[in-house]
Amino acid sequence: MSESNTGSSTSSELSVSRRCNSREDGSDIQNQQHSIYTSLRQDIPSTQQSISDSTLANSISHNEKAYPNWSAEAPIPCHEIHDIFLNYERKFGFQHDNTRNMYDHLLTMLNSRSARMSTQLALWTLHADYIGGEHANYRKWYFAAHLDLDDRRTPKSSPTGQLLEEAKREWKERMENMTDHERISHLALYLLIWGEAATLRYTPELLCFLFYIAEGYRESYNQGSPPPSFLDDIISPLYQYVRDQTYQTIRGHYVRREKDHHEIIGYDDINQFFWDKGAVSNLRLKSNTLFKDIPKEKRYLLLGEIDWNRAFKKTFYEARSWFHIVSNFSRIWIIHAASFWYYMAASVDFIYLERKKRSGVADGLIDLPVKLSVVGLGGLVAVLLMIISTLIEFKYLRVSVQTSSILITRLLVLLFLAACHVACSVYIIKYDQASTLALILSSCQLGVGAIISIVMAIIPSASLFHHHNSSRHLTCKTFTANFPEMTGDDRFLSVLLWICVFSCKFLETYFFLALSFRDALSVTTLMQLNNCSADPLLGRWLCSVMPVLTTILMFSVELVLFFLDTYLWFVIWNTVFSVSQAMRLGISIMTSWKQLFAKLPNNMFSKITATKDFVSVQLRRMACSQMWNAIIISINLQSLLYQVHVDQDDQGQTIRELQAPPIFDPALSVDMEEYFPKHSEAERRLSFFAQSLSTEFPLPCSVKHMPTFTVFTPHYSEKMLLSLREIIREEDTTTRVTLLEYLKKLHPAEWNNFVKDTMFIAEETQVPTKPSEKDDLPFYCIGFKSAAPEYTLRTRVWASLRAQTLYRTINGFMNYSRALKILHRIENPELNMKPTKENEDGNNNTEDIHEDNEDQDTDQKRETETLLDAISHEKFRFLVAMQRYAQFNQEEAENCEFLLTEYPHLQIAYIDQELDREGHIVYYSVLIDGHCDLLPNNKRSPKYRIRLPGNPILGDGKSDNQNHALIFYRGEYLQLVDANQDNYLEECLKIRSIFSEFEQDNILSLDQVYALYSTAKEAKHEPANTAPVAIVGAREYIFSENVGMLGDVAAGKEQTFGTLTQRIMAKTGGRLHYGHPDFLNAVFMTTRGGVSKAQRGLHLNEDIYAGMNALLRGGRIKHTEYLQCGKGRDLGFCSILNFTTKIGTGMGEQLLSREYYYLGTQLPLDRFLTFYYGHPGFHMNNIMIIFAVQVFLLCMTLVGTMAAGLPHCTGTNCFDVRPVYEWLKRCILSIFMVFFIAFLPLFLQELTEKGTCRSILRLIKQFLSLSPLFEVFVTQIYANSVLSNLSFGGARYIATGRGFATSRLPFSVLYSRFAHPSIYFGARTVFMLFFVSLALWIPHLIYFWATVASLLISPFVFNPHQFVLMDFIYDYREFLGWLTRAFVALFLTRELHHDATNRAWWTGRWKSSQVGNLAAREYICKIVEMSLFTTDFILGHLILFALFPFTLIPSVDRIHSLILFWLRPSKQIRPSVLPTKERRRRRNIVLIYFPFFIFILFSFAALIILPPTLAPKMPIQYRNLVKNF
């Protein structure tokens, strides 16, 4: 994060300064902090005034110049398209602003496509993508739901297949014979429906149904009936139905219903209703008339009369249960459980084989048929798991004749297979153990069982015992199993990955775990305890059963480790494959940096510019120099600029020669440090730029021919621009540093440059005086000396560009506009020409020529800038979904106004509301930009204001915010960006190659547009046969990686997942959509439900559902390595864990979702395994790690009990500990490896891209900063989040906050936040571990002690300034106050508001109290509450006692800050500066509570030390009494 925005920030800061220099009055910062925006509201320059959007603010535009590519030779002129829209507005009752918006939307799309193909082909392909093409969602719905035909799974030879082929041919002929006017009409009607559908955009097949009905009405000539209002009569009833599922009206306010997902008919249930032809045909009006009986041309008029309450039912029950994991991922359990059975049954045969005499008969009498039969029961294990999975599916699927018949058929076959297994084993074990027939039967049972296990592992459960081409399926395959086919190489790589994983797993399991387990198990299973002493309560039973319990726990540990091994090997091989892929692409440090930079000029020209016809070397060099100099200026490294060298030849003529920077000369033997600081941001950016251009990627088209795209960012309450108060004042009394001071220490070189620039600007505007260090001190302290707005704003901008703010995001991604201008200027060299007056008319008057040339040059520059601005705005839009804009406070509103003034083309969509005449709130989706007129209330006049059926925020917020603003995007592609991201100019130059990844730039002939699969395959027309690309991902650079240990760990996780993991997951078909910074095929995604899903709670992680939806519906998902965007990550302990909790609870909701059911039961095995271990498998691995720790400690407790009470020997009544100890050591090592494998991906990625030294250094820094403790704690938080959500729910959006974590949190806050998720669990574990350590100490237990310690003390270890003694004692006071407050609060229950329970508890008068019939319940509650209070009192004090010694270490706070913040001792954060009164108050608190703390400490010590010391001196009667208890 050191220099990432130097250049972009420099240009922004300078532009701000120029704008603000006109205002210099004022000295009071507080009074004039918001007045800076007044000086910014000046006239927009002419270069910006000339550019306006294609639609006016009050009327629809017929200006064909707004769509230059479509206007030339368009099959349907703009004015005719305009008439079509106006006609549909009147006929269907659409809103006027919706009409205007969708008109511009359609024309922009047609204009974008017409830039690279003919206008007719642009219209045909767009119509094919929306309506009539092979991959159009409407066509898929029409065939699947309307015609009840599946065009991918119906055999052509069958009667249905022949019918399907005929229907496809008729469809193709109809599409091709359609007039262009009809195509425009289809597109206009669909977009108008989509634009006004509001939250129903989440239900794409419902929109298809509405379009189908509206199309019937469009073709009719109904002139007598008045048109309904589309919003009020059609959309509003459906919206109200959706809203009423989750909200109810109480006293005029909408309150969320207390209903879980399985009781709510959500968007997906409504949408799936329209997959079923029979269900749609049964639609009825409120008058009980069948909707299908109404004539086609009149159905649209009666859509508002449909009884939707009677129509919709649940189609999938998202009941909160662990059974979802069993049914969704049955193949995972079958693979592991069956394999584990085969391993154990073959390895520990001494458990079950019958011997005639246990002692004295030779091993040669072992019966082989029995062993084969028992081992063969692994097939029965697989069958039983599938039976359980099938029974669970009855619970979650809506029972119908079709689903029941499929599931019952599968269940009967499975029961038959299970019965055969049981019959064989019973016969062999009970009746015939040694005959030839028994041997044959057992061999067959083993072989058939293995085959059954393999078949059930490979074949998805949805296709098990069910014909693939059958017309009956559990779900509609068109929308739930339309997976895109993988290429041969990718499929081979996917299969090879899992062959490597399971080969290593099975070999390692056999040699590392199974063999050692056999010896340990033989000790516990063959042990016989005959001389057990009797227990007063349980007698000898507990002693005799202990070996059995130990054996069961040992099997459990082994089974859990068997599951964990798979994830371990997946991480290893996934990393190896990903690194190999990176090296194959050329993304590694193995390439010399000198060679990279030597090839960079040629690579820049050949791979970034689209102009290849430059013959002149000078022109090629000019092109490279323009790009390179722009990049270098943005990074502020003037020493690397292309320079113009002026010289004279022999004849005295001036020669200007463009000289390349020395970094491009490989002959110079210099180090990289001579060009830019070592390990700086400049080095990282330029190195990646040079390296990325050395890889292969699609060549770009010209700027003129490139498609239009939109960057889309949701915003709620994220910081737009830091205020002066936030920058120069501490957050609170515990912060010890201001934000500006912290940023100056993180970016010292940038701050010095900023101060120099500010001083230079100040000198230009002030009277020169004799400089002095004292006068310059304010500049170095706060960045300005005068409180004038132009100076304070510069400091705010500087700080905002180095924090995670919306301004940083907008400033970074607006580099797209700058990049397009540079590229267009390069591709059109005539824009750089300077015609002179002398050249035109031969005028020899030098002075006149000079003046005329200056005027002409100025005019030409203005015209050129106008043209470039028009081109960039035509190709690129930036849309911010600023949900709260209408409710902004003054500071937020002025910050937003500053953004609009700084970036006039920035578009902001927000939700507005007003009261109608009846007092009801009316909601609107509104769009504004910097060109809109400023109103008297300091708001902007809307460009579009589209009324909504109600409040659009029905879910968790973000997805609904995206959805309401989605109608304002423009172009063919979307890039989704969060408000904590950044972009760089050099990366923006490569944007055109990204669009080639969507494979839509191949020019087709008209007869290929609507081509069928069969036709395309016969004619080898690849474009028609290839699944469309839905999502293209890009790399992420986490610019917060060096902001302390926690920031670096969070950045490392995000970096490895966003780059290393997704690189190989995209190749193996398992990558989904994760929000940022993915590029989306806009038509594909918007016709399939949008960019996210929005059912409250269930779709908490909204982004990933768009990826699953795309995968289920046939969209390909790719990942690119040559482009990266910046991203910020959480920096503090609590904010990181809030994000972890959000992800964990979101995963708990995903496990309940129907998408996981569809993917888990229908994906091919290799893609299923990649999907599982790349997504839910990570969380299941965390759960199993924590479970393994608990079970293993419990197992060691029993082993320690026997080891402490029995002699160590072999034979009866003794315990052979040696093999058991060896097994324990191996298990501890396995758990250790599973924990620390998390560091491998980051290490290898750093090793590949940055070298050995830097990768080892980063790993050492993390280890020395105690990051392993943090990793263990995060694992527990992940596991607890998933478990609690699956059991109790409660998933919600958590605002993590991504500010700099320099503030100290009180002990009581941290304890209360993490007590339930981790501290209680750690306390329970530490007591077991303490006993185990005393009973059977082995050095390996040190790792477990570190693990348990991390669960208890991590929140406090990673709390800034935790070990300052005065603050520590102040914390103790707060902790005691928290205990007493909580203690009192627990006594007050919800039902009893008069302290009745409290009084009854302390007086003991329950009968005469006001508790009444609740006495028994309240009594139990009080016992529980008192127990919790006691637990918190004791446990909190024990943790404080453990932390206290560290506060006595000299300079401990400096050492601790060095660990957390990674700041050198010379840059340590200063001590806290408090007012005298506050210091005195704190000193008094310490004087009172420090002695009290010491007294409590000695009291606890006495309670622990004195009883065992004084016990021997007690009377014998007392000791016997204690012993009996």
Quick description:
It is built from 63 helices and 14 strands. With 1525 residues, it is mainly α. Helix 1 runs antiparallel to helix 33 and helix 24 runs antiparallel to helix 25.
What's the SSE blueprint?
Layout: H1 6-20, H2 29-32, H3 36-40, H4 46-49, H5 68-71, H6 78-92, H7 96-114, H8 119-132, H9 137-146, H10 159-177, H11 180-195, H12 204-218, H13 230-246, E1 247-250, E2 253-256, H14 267-273, H15 277-281, H16 308-311, H17 323-328, H18 330-347, H19 368-376, H20 378-396, H21 401-431, H22 436-458, H23 477-480, H24 488-525, H25 541-585, H26 593-607, H27 617-635, E3 643-648, E4 654-659, H28 681-693, E5 709-715, H29 724-728, H30 739-746, H31 748-765, H32 773-782, H33 789-800, H34 806-813, H35 815-827, H36 837-841, H37 846-875, E6 876-882, H38 890-902, E7 907-915, E8 921-929, E9 944-947, H39 958-965, E10 973-976, E11 981-982, H40 985-988, H41 991-996, H42 1006-1009, H43 1013-1019, H44 1022-1025, E12 1029-1038, H45 1044-1067, E13 1079-1081, H46 1082-1086, H47 1102-1112, E14 1116-1127, H48 1133-1152, H49 1154-1162, H50 1165-1174, H51 1176-1205, H52 1217-1236, H53 1240-1250, H54 1252-1264, H55 1267-1288, H56 1307-1335, H57 1341-1357, H58 1365-1386, H59 1396-1403, H60 1415-1447, H61 1452-1461, H62 1476-1510, H63 1516-1524
Parallel strand pairs: 5-6, 5-10, 6-7, 12-14
Antiparallel strand pairs: 1-2, 3-4, 7-8, 8-9, 10-13, 11-14, 12-13
